[in-house]
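Field guide to reading this record: the first block holds the primary sequence, the second block holds the structure written as discrete tokens, and the final block holds curator observations. Each block starts with its own label. This record concerns Dehydrogenase, catalogued under organism Streptomyces subrutilus.

BLOCK 1 — SEQUENCE
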Amino acid sequence: MRIGLIGTGRIGSFHAAALSRHPQAGSLLLADADPARAARLADRLGATAAPSVEQVFTWGVDAVVVACATEGHAELVVRAVRGGLPVFCEKPVAPDLARTLAVLREVEALGGVLQLGFMRRFDAGYGRARELVSAGALGRLHTVRTTTSDAEPPQAAYLATSGGLYRDCLVHDFDVVRWVTGHEVAEVYAAGSDAGPARFRETGDVDTAAAVLALDDGTLVTATGTRCNGAGYDVRMELAGERDQVCVGLDDRTPIASTEPQGPPAASKPWTGFLERFGPAYEAELAAFVRLVRGEGPNPCGGREALAAFRVAEACELSRRERRRVRLEELPDL
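BLOCK 2 — STRUCTURE
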């Protein structure tokens, strides 16, 4: 098997290293808008560097991994699918809902294979929470709480093309809420604050956000996020039911301290970022893609799954902007 990987920045380099260690991934062909960066990574991993992205499609590969900047995702996914190649794409498919729908319609019309990168589905803690909910161990869920907090804000250049806090960051929470609970989001109400660094106001984004989601079975979900959590990278999910409650992401590296006299101490080595916290999950999702390409496993996160989470993020952005509740049925769908 030969896999072409496009984009050798931070996440692309991580994916390339993971695939280079996979016993069934075969050889790697790396490409980047900066050919020198692809060449340096290829030298480190014993892979082949292409002089441009074009060669990924003309030199012959069995599958494509898209890990470049967001604005390039749609074109590359469509090109791969038109060439009959299975494709793994980091979220999102496209920067906005209209282009996302256009890409997914073409993927489905061509019978293409597209797996989206929602790595929390491969995290052990979220997987266990899903098992407990499915088995009824918590009883009827009444409340779910999620939080995603970055240790420090990204640069302005990244914010300008990220799509905003809901689409870029909290979309992971929206996806995993659906995956763990087995229910769809019916309605949202969202608010955001840009009171932090000036770069957020300058790019029309918010540094902190909160959303209330109503699921189709009546369960209430609160989802909060921030780019400015100085204590460290904090990603948690609490699920409370009539019988019991559990928490994902609560361990000796969770960057939160108790004020109680007998409470646990603050983490001595808090999580610093998403690659450190979800490293094993990223490797597991790529292993699932290799199995998918080899015909040995199902697609763990297809286009429609990714679309469902993206529509929730779009609804939250609309709610924040118009200061009102938004029902998901207001947004276009496939």
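BLOCK 3 — OBSERVATIONS
The domain at 2-120+283-301 is CATH 3.40.50.720 (Rossmann fold).
The longest strand covers residues 141-149.
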